[in-house]
């Protein structure tokens, strides 16, 4: 092997080792983010077909969950053709949770890897409780959810 090839291989190996070690030592986990072109997120309104009423002290429009298999197929196709046999590895999740006034429309739904969905569920629980008791506004809730995707969560 030529010296330059050997140096390049060792350099890449060193970078990978440092990156892996840094990820383990800080507890930082990579988080898959929804494609903003496919899932820009949307809020429920009284015109939404799944509108179920107004809730919370802020009087937020709430939509009921009603994600059909046909909608899941469309989302899975848009996100690279995830076969139905692999759906168990994903939660067809609402970018903006229903409890925060998120819409049940397809532009608010994406296939989130199941382990990450469980992490996001903890944030959603905080958001839901805050909106219910009036300590969090809808805009604060949306910002809190958005921060999940820009700041990797720590390992449990």
Top keywords for this entry?
2 domains; disordered N terminus; two-stranded antiparallel ribbon; 156 residues; 4 helices; alpha+beta
How would you characterize the overall build of this protein?
This protein has 156 residues and is of the alpha+beta class. It contains four helices and four strands; from the N terminus they run H-E-E-H-E-E-H-H. It has helices spanning 3-26, 69-78, 114-133, 138-150, and strands at residues 51-55, 60-63, 90-94, 109-113. The longest helix is centred in the first third of the chain and has 24 residues, at 3-26. Residues 1-29 have low confidence and may be disordered.
Give the spatial strand order of the biggest sheet.
1-2
Mean pLDDT: 80
Helix content: 40-55%
Total count of domains: 2
End-to-end separation = 44 Å
Please summarize the sheet with the most strands: 2 strands, antiparallel
- Let me know the number of strands: 4
Strand percentage, roughly? 5-15%
Radius of gyration: 20 Å
Structural class: alpha+beta
Q: Given the C-alpha coordinates, what overall shape results?
A: globular
What's the gist of this structure?
The chain has 156 residues and is α+β, with helices and mostly antiparallel strands. The protein has four helices and four strands; from the N terminus they run H-E-E-H-E-E-H-H.
